[in-house]
Design goal:
The protein has 387 residues and is α/β, with parallel strands linked by helices. The protein has 2 domains: 135 residues, no CATH class; 242 residues, Spore Coat Polysaccharide Biosynthesis Protein SpsA, Chain A. It is built from 16 helices and 8 strands. Strand 2, helix 4 and strand 3 form a beta-alpha-beta unit. Helix 1 packs across helix 13, helix 13 crosses helix 14 and helix 13 runs antiparallel to helix 15. The longest helix is centred in the last third of the chain and has 24 residues. It is globular and about 75 Å long. The chain starts with a helix and ends with a helix.
Amino acid sequence: MTAVDWIAALSLAAWAYLLLFNGGFWLTSEREETEREKSSAPAAWPRVTAVIPARNEADMLPFSLTSLAAQDYPGEFSIVLVDDQSTDGTAEVARSIAANSTREITIINGAPLPSAWTGKVWAMHQGIAAASLLKSKPDYLLLTDADISYASGMLQSLVMSTHTNGRAMTSVMAKLKCQSFAERALVPAFIFFFQMLYPFRWVNRHRAATAAAAGGCMLVDRGALERAGGIAAIRGALIDDCALGKLLKKQGPIWLGLSNNVMSLRDYPTFDDIRRMVARSAYAQLHYSPLLLLGTVAGMAAIYLVPLAFVFFAGFPANVLAGAAYLLMIIVFQPTLRFYNRSPLWGVALPVIAMTYVGFTLDSAYQHKRGRGGLWKGRVQAEVGRQ
């Protein structure tokens, strides 16, 4: 066999491994709806407080905050929103919603960001501190984002599954919008790559080392969080959700899955919008390491680009091996495409989509070099994330 044949064979072997031995990541089988069916209502519903960090989210709150206030939850449920130095009237919009709600909603003005903290974690810290001062301390904290909308029974589902299984945390990855052409092209692959990196079955297996979470929706046992050192234990984390998942898995079982009942309201109308979203934290995921960046680029090219290129430009048997790898690639992408109601033909484009994400990752490293890493709503914080 020639070197080209060996490269094609290794690409096929990589896809066979991902299909068979990477935690069944591609099946999208870890679902909140299924967990709800397996759970039972507690004898006494625990007290829950939602903590929402909000930075310039005035346009989102009429949908996200309203959906939380409308939760059909039998127990005590309150909301604390932290206005994180907003300039768009976020606090005023939140107070207007609170004034017209029967739900207890507390709005606090966030203090300036101290050194060694990332912005969202600092806002969550202040919100959790405020929740602990409520007349009834919460048993659970719903750490959520200001751009997340919930179906009315979602809090019940989260509490039931968390309580039934004695978890330290239950997290649901919000279903991202998939309407613009850029979203239709790139959003399903974003979820696909996340599942590949953190197979949900392994996250949900208590004895497995893999830990992760989705920051838009995390129901946390307050006692477990306190035993772990509080949210301050991840004060410098740019990828705060996965850091929190790792922290809490040491305290007890955690769970991560998909759902149609937790929805992101954030629009990504253009490819550049998605680039900025990915570039904010992609290099942090690689621990700001040029060697890991180089390895990632080479690995993505070998796994995604080689099958497509060799099918058309390599001779036998490399073209056959590459064709088999390409077919496996298309197959494993199908469940994620179905979850997002996308055509199965998008699977054919996965090599191009993957290399687009490689470009975003390279841009993330470039932005870090320029001193603009971790940029989010005017705040640069990648250097904090390294601590």
